[in-house]
Amino acid sequence: MRDGIIKRGRTWSYVVREPDPATGRTRPRWVGGFPTRKAAQAARDAARHALNRGTYVAPQELTVAAYLDQWLEAHANQVKPSTLRSYQEKVDLYLKPSLGSLRLQALSPSRLSPVWRELYASGGRGGTGLSVRTVEFARAVLRRALNDAVVDRLLEVNPVLGSKLPKRDGKPQHKTWTGEQVSSFLGAVAETRWAPLWELAAGTGMRRGELMGLRWTDIDLDEAIVAVDRSTTQIGKDRVTTSPKNHERRRVAIDPHLVLVLRSWRKQQAEERLAWGEAYEHTEGWVFTWESGRPLLPDYVTKNWIKAQQASGLPRLTLHELRHTHATILLRAGTPVHIVSKRLGHKDPSVTLNVYADVIPEDDQSAVQIFSQAVWGGAS
């Protein structure tokens, strides 16, 4: 052996002395499989340099699947249950099937970029393609996981950062209803049990989880204000309540029509409580409940929303697109972006601008007239 390099069979290996975290002493680490002495020497020199800089990462056989399992388990108590479930779905559906068997340390940007393209082209059910947004989310989960791998000294750099996503074909367009279409839908469902839920969703732009997390103590009908302080998601068959998305608690004004709708709904609930007596389950003041007082499950709300649209004759929307509808109607009518952003609970108005830039009126001529009037009194 010369300079810590030796030939074993047809390949070359090198040895370095790495620190043992348990004892603080150094120990030999053999790394092999190099096709030439020169390749082994280059790898040895890089390892020695990393050891001197304190950035050395010991070679491991840990697979991507095994690491992601460890990572999810470590984060179980650090993120919201809904966030953890979303991470788990992306890992199970997309990351493990595509990358799980690979060694964690074998990942590279050039290995990951084709994976994102394959997911976009055929990563869905039955070989159908995925949306760019879904692929972006899967990539974001892996990026976050591998950031932690760098901190834990399992990787020297995060290979996700240099990988390339499929190119977006323009900015995604939100499917929404007009004000007339919203009015038509609400008229069609006016006699159904969950009409107040759809009215409040349309009139405030609140997210599904925020609607499910509402208690009557959050609603001041005299002041026409709804306080958004929590969000309820569904894990299995259980409701799980946490803070709103991005922890953005807010107060949302409602109009006189919604005040009347909610007063009527609260009266109906009170009558149901009396009718059920001691069997009534409603003990925490939830706004949206069954006749027995049992609070609604969020997943049921999504299913019922789809069913509620069947007889409307309107373009089919997801419940989240009703939130987009609320924002779009306001922005097209000229409501300032920062006001809409506050109503929606966005972290910053720039988020609202980015999401809804395509619906904000571009009235350059009006801007010219306003400036002209202010400076020159309208003279041309």
Automatic annotation (TrEMBL):
Q: Which GO terms describe its molecular function?
A: DNA binding
UniProt xrefs under Pfam families: Phage_int_SAM_3 (PF14659), Phage_integrase (PF00589)
Q: Which SUPFAM superfamilies match?
A: DNA breaking-rejoining enzymes
A GO biological process held by the record: DNA recombination
Give the InterPro entries listed for this entry: CB (IPR044068), DNA_brk_join_enz (IPR011010), Integrase-like_cat_sf (IPR013762), Integrase_catalytic (IPR002104), Integrase_recombinase_N (IPR010998), Integrase_SAM-like_N (IPR004107), Tyrosine_recombinase_XerCD (IPR050090)
> Which residue ranges does the record assign to the Core-binding (CB) domain?
62-150
Q: Work out whether the entry's keyword set contains DNA-binding.
A: yes
**Residue ranges of every copy of the Tyr recombinase domain listed in the record:** 172-369
* Highest taxon, organism lineage: Bacteria
- For this UniProt record, give its keywords in alphabetical order, as a comma-separated list: DNA integration, DNA recombination, DNA-binding
> Is Repeat set as a keyword in this record?
no
The protein in question is named Site-specific integrase
What's the source species for this entry? Nocardioides euryhalodurans
